[in-house]
Amino acid sequence: MKRVVITSCGVVSPIGIGHEQFLKGLQAEPPSLTRPSFFETKGCSEEGVLELVGFNASDYIEGKGLRSLDRNTKIAMAATSLALGKSGLSEEQRRKVGMVLGTMFGSMTSISDFNLESIQNGPLSVSPMLFPNTVINSPTSQVNIRFGLSGLSATLSSCNTSSLDALGYACQMIQTGMADALLAGGSEELCSLSYHALDRFKLLGTAEEDHPPPAEGAAILLLEEFDHAVRRGSPILAEIRGQANTFAPDQKTDSQNALQRSIEASLAEAGLHAQDINQFFSSVSGFPWQRRLTSALVARLLPNAKTMRKDLQRYLGESFGALGSLTLAAALGPLNDQVSNANGPEHILLGGVGYFGNASALVLTRSQTWGEA
Amino acid sequence: MKRVVITGLGVVSPLGCEREEFFTNLLEGRSGVEQITSFDCSGLRSNLGGIVKGFEPGRYLTPEEQIKTGLSAQYAIAATAQALEQSGLLQNGVAPRDIGVSLGTTMGEAQVTYQIDQVAALKGIDQVPGQLYLQRPPGAMATSLARKFGFGGPNNMIPTACAAGNYAIGNSFDLIQSGRVKAMVTGGADCLSISAVYGFNRLNSLTPDQVRPFDRNRKGILVGEGAGILVLEEYEQALARGAKIIAEVLGYGISCSTYHMITPDPQARGAVSAINKALQRAGVDKNHIGYISAHGTGTLANDKAETKAIKQVFGDRAGEIPISSIKSMLGHMMGAASAVEALTCALVVQRQLVPPTINYQDPDPECDLDYVPNYARKAEVDYALSNAYAFGANDSTVLIGKFQERRQ
Question: Phi, psi at residue A350, to the nearest 5°?
Answer without folding.
Answer: -110, 145
